[in-house]
Specification:
The protein folds into two domains: 199 residues, Periplasmic binding protein-like II (D-Maltodextrin-Binding Protein, domain 2); 234 residues, Periplasmic binding protein-like II (D-Maltodextrin-Binding Protein, domain 2), CATH 3.40.190. The chain has 18 helices and eleven strands.
Length: 503
């Protein structure tokens, strides 16, 4: 490619010189003018960040999740189809990958896997035990990759200087929220590992009923932009807009319900996260400790129970299921709010009969400064397996950095600006909310560590109480804290052991 470009430029230069001579200017004059230009002024050329790299066609082997067991994967933004097909997002992914391949002189080899969260741990164990360097990068569920990091099966991201974690295309604050021992970072979240964005929880709502009840389809939208969307506002809208369609005095499926929340576990994770619980503190040395036994946690539990157990919430508890998916019920206009959907679900709503708006999850109250958008414990993020030779790490992380930088410039803008904001969006109002959601992704600690800490603290101290409709946070905390603190200490020691062994 570079040789072809050089030959092309040489040909253009020779043709240009010949044309000037043919127009009456002598070759001597042309040469003199060129020399004067070179002597009198420096010709500015744009810096090429790829120029110092040439990996001789070496392959970067990426094992990318493609299962849809738990709502999302973003392989379409990572590997794509591997060819152009006229679809704007896929073609942007293809162009990004080709640019990085040619710029670094590498070969991107994508292999898709269909591991569900039940399969991942055994799959990684098998790869590690085999000792073969089969894949360099593994993209899969965050809570399982956190477990792999604790077990010492992943390379330490904190030891490389090839990633520009100060750049906006890295979700550095979220990555740092997972660091429990200074210098021990094993998870990557960025615009390349695109499920870090695509799997963000979004609260969808029925704009038609908003219009019917408030004479303004943008009533809620304007509240969101002003920073005023709180739990109280959500409850008020639920009560105002829901309708007992059969008039039997009961709120049940078939009525226009206030809120679809198909379970207390996953569907309530983004609600708790959105209410701003800060689970851990870090001292000046980076040591972590739990610090959520406070009045805010009590307020969070109370507010969550008011939402989940509200008579106008269509919920599933104790193994029950809804008749139809959240998508189906929202499409048919059977609820005001629909929970447990992700940002990438927006692209599936073009054929809805109902006009749908999107929102971040509400704040706990007006004192909360920012909206907080939650990922999920199965959001798919990046890691580098320990089987990758240490001598290859600079190569691997350099490739990841360039793929991430180019994702931010070539892929995410197309998906976010041209696909979601134009193709799927109902107006510029949705675009404003998309920006809020993207900029508010934070605090993955509790959902990423819920398995490694034995169900502590998010399920043990919040979700289980919601299931029981109990506001007795204090007693529940006291009964679970010994086990939770022991689990935390065990994880911290495992990370310290990893660091001591050089990882």
């Amino acid at each position: 490619m570079k040789n072809k470009i050089a030959l092309f430029l040489a040909l253009v230069l020779s043709l240009s010189t010949a044309a000037m001579t043919a127009c009456g200017e002598s070759a001597e004059e042309t040469t003199a003018d060129t020399a004067d230009t070179a002597a009198g002024e420096a010709v500015e050329t744009e810096y090429d960040p790829y120029s110092e790299y040439d990996y001789g066609g070496k392959a970067l082997r990426v094992y990318s999740s493609a299962d849809e067991f738990d709502s999302t994967n973003a392989h379409f933004l990572i590997g794509g189809t591997g060819e152009t097909n006229g679809e704007i997002v896929n073609d942007a992914v293809y162009a990004r990958n080709i640019k990085v391949e040619e710029g670094l002189n590498v070969k991107l080899e994508y292999t898709t896997c269909d591991w569900t969260y039940s399969d991942i741990a055994a799959g990684i164990d098998q790869l590690i035990m085999a000792g073969d360097s089969v894949y360099d990068v593994v993209i899969n569920d965050i809570f399982r990759l956190v477990e792999a990091g604790i077990k010492g099966q992943l390379h330490n991201v904190a030891r490389t200087d090839k990633l520009n974690l100060d750049a906006a295309y890295w979700y550095t604050e979220a990555m740092e929220d997972l660091v429990m021992v200074p210098g021990a970072m094993y998870i990557m979240m960025s615009d390349y590992f695109a499920d870090s964005l695509a799997s963000a929880h979004v609260l969808y709502y029925n704009k038609d009923v908003i219009l019917n009840n408030y004479s303004d389809a943008n009533y809620l939208h304007n509240i969101i932009l002003e920073g005023g969307f709180t739990q109280d506002v959500m409850v008020e809208i639920m009560e105002t807009c829901s309708v007992d369609l059969d008039g039997n005095g009961k709120w049940e499926q078939g009525d226009l319900m206030g809120y679809i929340v198909p379970g207390y576990w996953g569907p309530m994770m983004p609600v708790v996260t959105g209410f701003g619980v800060q689970y851990i503190d870090r001292d000046e040395n980076g040591n972590v400790s739990f610090n959520f036994n406070n009045e805010r946690s009590v307020e969070v539990i109370t507010a969550c129970n008011e939402l989940f157990h509200h008579e106008r919430s269509l919920r599933a508890v104790d193994g029950e299921t809804l008749q139809g998916t959240v998508h189906t019920l929202m499409a048919n206009g059977q609820a005001v709010f629909g929970g447990y959907l992700r940002l990438s679900d927006f692209g599936k709503m073009r054929d809805y009969e109902t006009t749908v708006g999107l929102s971040p999850y509400p704040k706990l109250n007006t004192a909360q400064e920012n909206y907080i958008s939650s990922l999920h414990d199965t959001s798919e993020v990046g890691s580098v397996l320990l089987t990758t030779p240490v001598g290859d790490l600079d190569f691997v992380f350099t490739c990841i950095e360039f793929l991430t930088k180019e994702a931010a410039e070539m892929v995410i803008p197309v998906w976010f600006e041209e696909a979601l904001k134009v193709k799927y969006s109902s107006g510029t109002e949705d675009a404003e909310i998309l920006d809020i959601i993207r900029n508010s992704i934070d605090r993955p600690f509790a959902l990423a560590y819920q398995s490694a800490l034995g169900g502590y603290p998010l399920p043990a101290c919040f979700l289980n109480l919601i299931n029981k409709n109990s506001n007795d946070f204090a007693s529940n905390y006291q009964s679970t804290k010994v086990a939770g603190e022991a689990a935390l200490a065990s994880v911290v020691e495992a990370y310290k052991s990893n660091l001591a062994s050089g990882n």
